[in-house]
Each structure stands twice: as C-alpha cells, then as structure tokens.
Amino acid sequence: MAVLEMTAPNSAAERLRPRILPRPRDEALFARARAEGLTELQARILAGRLAGYEGELAPLVSPSLGCLEHPERLADARRGAERIAQAVAEGEHIGILTDYDVDGITSHVVILRTLSELFGVPGHKLHSLIGHRINDGYGISLPLVERALKLSPRPSLVITADCGSSDEPRIARLKAAGIDVVVTDHHALPLEGPPASAYACINPTRDDCSYPDRTIAGCMVAWLMMSLARSVLIEWGAIPAATPKLSAWLSYVALGTVADCVSLGGSAANRAVVTHGLKLINRMDAACWRAMAERLGADSVPFDAETLAFQMGPRINARSRLDDPYAALHYMLAADDGMARQHLDVLDQDNQSRKAIEADMTEEARRLAMPQLDKGVPALVVFLEDGHAGVQGIVASRLVQAFGRPTLVLTRAAAPGMLTGSGRSIEGLHLREALQRAHDLAPEALPRFGGHRGAAGIGLPETQLDTFLAAFQQAVGEQLGTRELFPCVFTDGALETQQLALATLDELERLAPYGREFDAPLFEGTFLVEQLRAVGADGNHLMLGLSQGGVSVRAIWFRALSPGEVPGFGLGAKLHCAFKLSRNRWKGRESLQLMIEHAEALT
Q1: What is the pTM of this model?
Q2: In terms of CB atoms within 10 Å, which of 19, 154, 258, 543 comes out highest?
Q3: With contact defined as beta carbons under 8 Å apart, do 3 and 485 qualify?
Q4: Spatial separation of the C-alpha atoms in residues 135 and 286, rounded to whole Å
Q5: How many of the other CB atoms lie within 10 Å of CB of 431?
Q6: At a CB cut-off of 8 Å and minimum separation 6, what does 431 contact?
Q7: Would you place residue 119 in the very low, low, confident or very high pLDDT band (cuts 50, 70, 90)?
Q8: Torsion angle, CA of 528/532/535/541, rounded to 10 degrees?
Q9: Residue in 135, 132, 85, 40 with CA at minimum distance from that of residue 413
Q10: For residue range 140-192, what is the model confidence (pLDDT) as tens digits?
Q11: Burial tier of 576 (Cβ tally within 10 Å: 0-12, 13-18, 19+)
C-alpha cells in the first residue's frame, strides 16, 4: 500500500477506494538496464522495484550460487561451528530449537538432516524443540526452556534457528544449567546487542558482522552455519572429506526464504537460493514436494515462487497457527509418499480451519478499525477479545490491504492479563523501529517485541494498552510525518495489445523469482467485458472474458464479491483493471490468463 503526498479524500467511501497508480520508476536504472541488453519491459520492471540500486544487475537478473559469501564472514560463525563440531565429535546430546513458522520449520529440517545424515549423529541424541504458538509463545520461551531441562539425557548444546537474539533471560537459564546455546537468527537484535549468555550468536544484523547481506532468512543463516560446521569437522578429520555439501538442502531454504517474505529485491543471495532451490524442488526427489504436486494437480508443476508463497507456505504455517507444529515438520521429513500425504491431509484441514477463522476475525477487525479511520490515526490497532492468536498476522495484512495503514492485531495471550499481537507495515514505515521507539517512550507498556521492517510481533500487559497505543501512534507519526495514507495498487503501466500473449509472460519470467521488494509485475488496462459469471463455492469469484483491440483473453478475479453479492457491471461494460499475467494450464495445453487484482467499471 502507498504512502503518498496528496490531499485527503473527502468521503469515507472515497477514502477506502483503492487507487490504481503508476509505480515510481528509477529512470537512471531504467537506462542502465536497457544499455545492458534488457528489453524495455524488463527494464521497466527493474526500475520500478530497485530505486537507488547501484550494484551490478547481472547477479540479480541471472542469480548464481557463486554470489554467496563465505559463512566465516558472519560474526561468531567460526566459534559456533567449532562448538557444533565438538558436540558431534564427542557424541553429545544436541537440542534443535526453532520457531514454528515456515522459516523455523525449514531451518529445523536443515539442521536435523545435516546432523543425522551428513554428520552421523544418532537419532536418540537429537532433540527437537519447537514451541506451540499459543501455549509457549515465540522464541526461546520459558516453556521450551523447561522442556529442554526435563530431557533425559539433557542436551549439552542447543542450536537455535530463526529465534534467540532477544531471549537473553532464557538463554542465561540454560547456561546456568550447563547447556551451551548457539543462536542462529536473522531478526533485529535488541539495543543491548547479542545475548550475553549465548555461546555464540550468528546473526547478519549484528553491528560487528561483516556479512554483506543482512536480509537473508533464518533458514539461510542456519544453512551457512551448518555448512561451516561441516568444514570444521572435515578439518578435524572427524568426518570424511567426501561428506556431501549441504547444497541439496537449498530446496528447504528456498521455501523458508519465500514464505518468510525476506527481500527478493536487491539481495543477490536470496534470489540465488530461491532460484537454485526451485530447481531442486522441481526434480520432485522428496516425498513432501511430490505430495504437494499431487494435491495441487499435474498442471501445478513446475513450482515457482508463488507456489511456495501461496500454496506450501500457508499450509505449513496453518498448522503452527492453530495447533502443534510437529505435523509440519513430519510432513517435510516424510520418507515416503504415503506418509507425506497423511501429514499433508492434516495441514490441509488446518488450513481450511484457518481460512474460516481468518474470515470471521477480518470482518470484526474491519468493524473495529472504522472509528479509528474516522479519527485519522496513522496506524490501526485492533484488539479482538475472542480472536485466535495464530491468525493475527494474516488479519493485519488484510487491513493493510484494505486501508493502507500499518496495522497491529491483538488477542489475549495464554498468560493471564497479557495480550499478544502481530503487525504488518506499509511502504515507508519500518515497523520494528516504530516499536523500538514506542518501547523507549513507554518501556512498561511494551516489554516484549521483535520483527523487522515489514512484520513484527509484540506482547504487553492489558492494563498498559492505552499507554502503548499512545506511544505507538506517536512513533508511527514521527516516521510518516504529515503524509496522507490510503489503499492503492501500484502498477507497471500498460501493455500494448500485442503484448497480451504468452511470449510476454516468458519475457517476465526471465526476471524471476518475484517476492517481497520485488513484486510480481502488475499492469493496468481498459477492457470490454464479453463474458461474465460468478464461480466458487460461495459465488464470490468472477470468471471473465475480456477484449482489447480485437484481442480476447480470459481473466479470473478472486474475492471480487461478497457471498450473495452480484457484480456492479454487466456484459458490454468497460473495466479499468490492475492485473497480472498468468499461465493457465489445462490437460497439457497453456493459454494466457489475467489475474485481476482490482477493477473499476468506467461510466
């Protein structure tokens, strides 16, 4: 959503109507891309996404694993790798403690498979520690610490992934019990720096870290750490020099990177691992990929980044949002297709339940947001007293899309008197920095928070809610200033009629992968409606036949209507649309299809 300097809309309806606007373009980058041989359309896409980018274009346009930096450039990496190698060489029990989302689960798979399959650690010496989102909370929570301390034999080393940087008190407790903690993470560190009690803290956001890419996902940090541990073990002669590298696990890193919404813009490393990981996934060597392809249908292969983002990611996340996350781990590790299908059934059921809960919570959240919009607040904060904590982030995203404002969605926490929340941001607001500022203004009102520019999580006492609201609104206002906020859809401009063809999609796919900070191309154009029918179980999607300049094309507009609603236009209407190009596959044949993101009937 946009943050633009413009006059505030007058009516409530006008204020909530998404505007279709051209994406700002870096003309210098456009000229450079054209000079380096990219087509006009490809140059347009790059110039609309990489404003101010001065690095080489080749690593972004043609991603290669050769651009990955050596893991020893990560601060503390050598120390952490040697501690892991020591535990392997001396037969210690090792705990693997990760977050419960896709990034955490894929990190867990990378660490677990490396230790067991490459380093030869027996299964009974490896202990998986994944928190329950509702019962345990995020990170190295106190319940997870208690669970680790009750293990028998107790691990002498715990390796974290995608968490730990802000968990000093719990790490100190593990250390006091004789357990070393090697933290691997990618979340911003607290102002006081890395956790003092950790044996090592490997995090590219550390001030003293020379790793050039601070945007890599938690699973990538874990992959780099375990790759370095392999090198150390070979140096020590503890494992053969022929021990395979971790390249095969980049399939998991690709999934975690896309699902965690880290940057696919100026990050050559992220683009490289997603590109290479997708190649591995599409070999369909693992049961988890085969089961998903079977579930989605033969026409879903080959998978692309959108498959990971909108098909695999939500199913894995749904399990951790609603229940115990271990089913997601078991699905990823399934040894045969039958077990993978069985675990995928569980994930699918949870995903359907998640969708129903999300719909109810979103409706309530929109109702609670309206009075705040009338007051002109810069950010929305809604407290859903009966809401499910596992769906907070998705509901926050829906409100950001609808209202163009950063949003926090709060629900009750498991601990009495506490609230928990997830937030999503907009272009122009660094959410974690806003929360840090709110904490500085009122420390007692925000005792726990974490995240990054686009998303964050918080915990606070219910009695401090009003104090937190005042501090947070002040913090957001300081960043955004007097800029007006409204929902808008940025497009890459219009296409010529002859560009409404599969060849154009081929041209665009040469710039893939698309994702956060490198959005999939979105275009705008005016079309004549030639066919129109509602589809879907609730009749809330529209299947359209559109034409422009003698060219006819099929289009689908998901969630165009509320259940029972009828379209506000008919056959013969002119629609101004914001749309993506997609490949419709049916029985081995391909055709172009438009995916409508937003449309307005022209009078």
Answers
A1: 0.87
A2: 258
A3: yes
A4: 32
A5: 26
A6: 406, 423, 424, 425, 451, 452, 453, 454, 455, 456
A7: very high
A8: 30
A9: 135
A10: 999 999 999 999 999 999 999 999 999 999 999 999 999 999 999 999 888 89
A11: middle
Q: ∠ CA(314), CA(318), CA(322), 5° rounding?
A: 165
Q: Which two tokens stand for residue 470?
A: 């005042």
Report angle CA 213, 217, 220 to the nearest 5 degrees. 85
Cβ-contact 543, 533 below 8 angstroms? yes
**Which DSSP symbol is given to 70?**
P
> If you write DSSP's letter for every residue of 260-321 in order, what string do you get?
TT---SS-HHHHHHHHHHHHHHTTT-SHHHHHHHHHH-GGGPSP-HHHIIIIIHHHHHHHHH
**Model confidence band, residue 7 (pLDDT cutoffs 50, 70, 90):** very low
Looking at this protein, which amino acid is placed at residue 544?
Answer: L
Q: Which two tokens stand for residue 154?
A: 């107790």
The angle formed by the CA atoms of residues 357, 363 and 369, to the nearest 5 degrees, is 125
Q: How confident is the model at residue 415 (pLDDT cuts 50, 70, 90)?
A: confident
CA distances from 214 to 203, 336, 434 (A): 8, 37, 19
In three-state form (DSSP H/G/I as H, E/B as E, the rest C), the secondary structure along 152-200 is CCCCCEEEEECCCCCCHHHHHHHHHCCCEEEEECCCCCCCCCCCCCCCE
Compute the distance between CA of residue 411 and CA of residue 420 in angstroms, rounded to an integer.
6
Q: Which domains does the chain show, CATH number per domain?
A: 2-62+489-602 (2.40.50.460), 68-256 (3.90.1640.30), 376-486 (3.10.310.30)
Q: What is the mean predicted confidence (pLDDT) over 384-400?
A: 90
**Is the Cα dihedral 329, 334, 339, 342 positive or negative?**
positive
Residue 281, SS3?
A: helix
Measured distance between the N- and C-terminal CA atoms of the chain, rounded to whole angstroms: 26
B/e letters for 534-552, b = 16+ CB within 10 Å, e = fewer, are beeeeebbbbbbbebeeee
Complete edge-to-edge strand list for the sheet that includes strand 200-202: 126-130, 94-98, 157-161, 180-184, 200-202
For strand 407-412 and strand 380-383, is the pairing parallel, antiparallel, or unpaired? Answer: parallel
How does DSSP classify residue 388?
Answer: -
Give dist(CA 439, CA 110) in Å, integer: 35
- CA dihedral (392, 397, 401, 403) positive or negative: positive
Query: What is the longest distance spanned by two Cα atoms in the chain?
Result: 76
Q: What is the pLDDT of residues 304-339, one digit of tens each?
A: 999 999 999 989 988 766 667 888 999 999 999 999
At 45, which amino acid appears?
I
DSSP three-state, residue 402 = helix
Q: Report the C-alpha gap between 70 and 147 in whole angstroms.
A: 35
- For the record, the structure tokens of 592 come out as 């172009």
